């Protein structure tokens, strides 16, 4: 199997379990990373590291999410990795989301209030203005906590966080219009990409959204 490996904290549990099964069952799996973090996760778990250069068609990708609505529209990018995550997910026949139950919403914005947008550094200020002028809400450049200045993505870009207003339903159109803004690299809106989402509850329960 050619398997995309997402980024964030929840994926760590999935990769740990995957590595256990590969060891015990001798599964033949090539893992495609979606970030430097995912690459380190694959290597430190002694899984086979692959790339889109050699295997551009994946059987499946497993990833986390910041929020999942009832149409399986996702907000991703809480960890600033949405660009490579979306590329890898687009190459996979199936995108499987693993998250805790706090990510499970009926509509976006109930629990997670922002949409990350990766932008070319030159364009961050015009995009901050344009997004809020066109769609409302507020937007800010994501600043580092343990690094002076803005955070820099794995691709050398900035992240703009758009705190969107309530009432938006047509995420497909919003996503397309933001993507068309000069300087936007990728949004954290994953529309019509995921086929299934598994949510783990604090009591160890499991719920599934299809
Ligand atoms: O940055 C990302 O897209 C991550 O996958 C994020 O959406 C989920 O991270 P978490 O599993 O740490 O909540």
TrEMBL record:
<comment type="pathway">
    <text>Carbohydrate degradation; pentose phosphate pathway; D-ribose 5-phosphate from D-ribulose 5-phosphate (non-oxidative stage): step 1/1.</text>
</comment>
<dbReference type="GO" id="GO:0009052">
    <property type="term" value="P:pentose-phosphate shunt, non-oxidative branch"/>
</dbReference>
<comment type="similarity">
    <text>Belongs to the ribose 5-phosphate isomerase family.</text>
</comment>
<keyword id="KW-0413">Isomerase</keyword>
<dbReference type="GO" id="GO:0004751">
    <property type="term" value="F:ribose-5-phosphate isomerase activity"/>
</dbReference>
<dbReference type="InterPro" id="IPR037171">
    <property type="entry name" value="NagB/RpiA_transferase-like"/>
</dbReference>
<dbReference type="GO" id="GO:0006014">
    <property type="term" value="P:D-ribose metabolic process"/>
</dbReference>
<dbReference type="InterPro" id="IPR004788">
    <property type="entry name" value="Ribose5P_isomerase_type_A"/>
</dbReference>
<dbReference type="GO" id="GO:0005737">
    <property type="term" value="C:cytoplasm"/>
</dbReference>
<protein>
    <recommendedName>
        <fullName>ribose-5-phosphate isomerase</fullName>
        <ecNumber>5.3.1.6</ecNumber>
    </recommendedName>
</protein>
<dbReference type="Pfam" id="PF06026">
    <property type="entry name" value="Rib_5-P_isom_A"/>
</dbReference>
